[in-house]
Write a structure and sequence with these properties.
With 431 residues, the protein is an alpha/beta fold. The chain contains 11 helices and 21 strands.
Length: 431
């Protein structure tokens, strides 16, 4: 069927109408006429796949990656259009939840663009496909756990990371090690150092990798370490195969170490823009008792500690906690106290801390109901909420009302060329 695309809706589906019925398809820019094939019928809409662009839009451009649908489907549009699409998606989601946007009325705030739109990602993780005459590195097809797309290189990571990917491509073709299921590369933005991580079904696979692959890997420029992780063995520390097991990132005056399994923002320059916004908000009041929830390796707590009288950092991930402790010592952060454990298991400690300001940076599922109830009853004046999922953010903003009302909602483009969107909100206690 032929379909005229009306808009792109979060998270990246193109919407059109066919004989009065809503159709969602996997590619198409606003205004384009496409040909699509129906793949499923739902109660209120149809699902389709785009098979041909009949009339391309002026903002359509050639993607840099052959596998763009798997890594960054917004490569097909200009960055100008991408920022407009993302701003519109956020406005639509907030409207659906009846949240005023912008909160105080007036002009819709601009999305904060990324300093880089290619080569910005500090990590890439690919599957190794062995059951072919020529093994290859691959991303999973969108929405599939079994179908795979070969990856030669990726425009979202640096030239140094792509060079190391080429090295791995040659290694898997020269030395078959079927126990190695995935390869990950992480890179420090500030130093450029590279860390390779090998995922294996067993220890023997890591031993063989150390024997067969390591001689060539050690000679690769910029590679400072190779770590091994065993599949299905959570809680076991990474295996040291070569060099350092961690990377160091320098953010302003803060030094941060993080390891193979740690959460760390993929776009450090954009992270600094968020930190700048948070600092502006904190400067408006007296030095605050700051509650840092989902603290990771201590990134925000350390960046903001100069503006706080005391910080309570709550984190549950074992690897994050290991490096958070190291980072507190490294930066001589005597203002920051760690509460190790899941946020909902540390509610009594949160209550007794009596914070003035709470910073929350939760995973995609958003805030736990018990935490929201606790934030409402303690004397916290402001909440700064950084979200990687606008839908759960909107849900939580409503759950925090009427005690807390959003004052500022601002989108930051951490993931250019992809549908992903990071949103920073400031809420103040209504009374």
């Amino acid at each position: 069927m032929e379909l005229r695309i009306e808009k792109i809706v979060y998270p990246g589906r193109s919407l059109g109408l066919y004989q009065g019925q809503v159709v969602f398809t996997d590619e198409g820019l606003p205004g384009e006429l496409i040909r699509a094939e129906i793949v499923a019928g739902r109660k209120n809409f149809l699902e389709a796949n785009t098979v041909e662009i009949i009339e391309p839009a002026p903002h359509r451009i050639e993607p840099r990656c052959s596998h763009y649908r798997a890594c960054s489907p917004y490569q097909i549009m200009t960055y100008e259009l991408e920022t407009k699409v993302k701003s519109g998606e956020l406005a639509e989601i907030l409207s659906r939840f009846k949240i005023p946007y912008p909160p105080a009325g007036g002009k819709l705030p601009d999305l904060v663009p990324s300093p880089q739109i290619y080569g910005y990602r500090n990590k890439i993780k690919l599957a190794v496909v062995w059951d072919t005459p020529q093994p290859f590195l691959a991303y999973h097809e969108p929405g599939s756990q079994t179908d795979l797309l070969p990856v030669e290189n990726c425009a979202l990571v640096s030239s140094e990371a792509n060079s190391l990917l080429s090295e791995f491509k040659e290694l898997i073709q020269a030395f078959r090690l079927p126990a190695i299921t995935q390869v990950e590369i992480r890179q420090s933005f500030s130093s450029g150092a590279l860390l390779a991580i090998l995922y294996s079904e067993n220890k023997q696979g890591l031993t063989e990798a150390a024997s067969r692959w390591l001689p060539r890997l050690k000679a690769h420029p910029g590679l400072t370490g190779v770590a091994g992780l065993l599949n299905h063995h959570s809680g076991i520390r990474p295996v040291s195969i070569y060099g350092q097991l961690d990377l160091e990132e320098r953010l302003e005056k803060v030094n941060l170490h993080y390891g193979p399994e740690c959460f760390f923002q993929v776009n450090p320059p954009q992270l600094l823009k968020v930190a700048g916004e948070l600092k502006t908000w904190l400067k408006e009041g007296k030095p605050a008792r700051l509650l840092d929830l989902y603290a990771g390796v201590g990134t925000f707590g350390l960046l903001l500690s100069d503006l706080a009288s005391e910080v309570l950092a709550v984190e549950s991930g074992d690897e994050n906690i290991f490096y958070l402790k190291e980072n507190l010592k490294l930066n001589q952060a005597d203002k920051i106290r760690l509460a190790a454990g899941r946020v909902e298991k540390r509610l009594k400690e949160i209550v007794s801390f009596r914070p003035d300001t709470a910073l929350v940076d939760p995973p995609r599922q958003g805030l736990e109901p018990e935490l929201i109830a606790t934030l409402k009853k303690i004397p916290v004046r402001s909440i700064f909420y950084l979200s990687c999922n606008p839908a759960t953010l909107a849900r939580d903003l409503n759950r925090l009302r009427p005690e807390f009302e959003p004052q500022t909602i601002r989108a930051f483009d951490f993931f250019p060329r992809t549908p992903n969107l990071e949103v920073l909100s400031r809420l103040r206690r209504a009374d």
